[in-house]
Amino acid sequence: MCYACPGMGFNDYERKAVQRAMKTETEESAVKRLKISEESAVRRVKILEVLELGRKKARVLAEGAPFHAAGGGQPGDTGTLEGENFRAEVEDTRKHKGEPGREDGNPSLSVLDIALISGPETLRAGMEVTAKVDGARNGILSRMHTGQHIFSRIQENANEGLETLKVNIGTEESAVYVRYEGEMTWDSLFAAEEKTLEAIRADLPVETLLMTREDAEKIPELKAKWDRIHSEDIRVVRIAGIDATACAGTHAARTGEIGGFLVTGFNGSPPDWEVRFTVEADGRLAEYGRVTRRLLREVGCRPDQLEDVFLRQRAENAALRQTLDKARAYISVPWEERSVGASRHPLYLAVLPGMTKELLSAPARVCAANHPDAFCLVLLPDAPAFADAPKSKSKSKPKPEPFPFLLLRGEALSVDLSGLVREFPELSARGGGKPDWLNGMTTQRSVSFWLDAIGKKCDQNNGL
Ligand SMILES: [Zn+2]
User: Fold this and answer.
1) Residues lining ligand 1 (ion), CB within 5 A?
2) Cβ distance 388 to 397 under 8 Å?
3) Which of 169, 214, 361, 381 has the fewest Cβ atoms within 10 Å of its own Cβ atom?
């Protein structure tokens, strides 16, 4: 985010503009203002140094590149570099790190991460290339960033004590991380979203003002993290009547350019919250609309009833789970006694179609504990793999559905069960566990395969 961003240095273009403005300034004003015109997105730049060189990638130090460097939550610009027999794609732009005492670095220098497309052997220090910014990508980042300024200020004004900590501007979605002791709610976010949209509809100018630190400090309600700004030159982004923030990012020229604003979600608990949004609201709303209409038809209710229906179902689900938890203690499993291996170890078997593993794991443990010299095998054919997962539809060729199994042994036995499914592929099983406890999914319904495998494992263990 802009105002948390330590790099406030001017680039050459801005420095000259300030000098021009200072010459033509007739009156002394508290704030020296200047609207920065759009910088040219195509420029000749000089590669000063090849910092790293790989087969397909390189990192170079460039002078005068038009790419905006990553900082304050806005990612670096991308674009292309083209020279004679040379072409590279700029994948990221970073600030040139300055020497100690001048942490802002030299603003006319930037570090570019590039992918070498053609003529990598021609890349060398001193070469001049034509640099072109991916303007569409920068445009969306600028709109997202400007929307964030408005939204953050509206949220801060509406909720006492709410503080924007950082932002993460993206092309699809952006995130604002806030500190707020109160409860974040959809209602408060809808209200802030509506006010942000009002500011967008008002098509207010977004001014970038260049000024000294002294002048900036005089602006009432300027948002700036002074402890993180080392430069004497301050860039202030002002949206009339709404916000003024010290910011080094790129922005739309007018609020109308932002286009839209939609809060897409939020997470967290007091005091740490994350709110996500996009400025490409139309496409996202259409997507949400399609999902909602499908769901409404499935549920068979009106849109305003959907939340109630869901919450009621969730409560019913929780009550059912509680009932099952209580019922678990009364489950009596019809164990069938078998034996395995040359030593005829007892094995308690339960094949219970349609039962879930959750209900059987406790009785299986009790069985193994009560019979320390025995195995305990539970096969649950046709039980859903996951209680909540819908069954997959439309299969070209019906495959046997995997179902859960459990295998335990009593503590008097020493056989290690953990490698069983790997060593006996005929069990068609996947899963894992411990030496005395195995659990997973299988398609092997035939009990004899299981008894054979466990018996062989016993015999191996007994050295037979
Ligand atoms: Zn900004």
Assistant:
1) 2, 145, 247, 249
2) no
3) 214
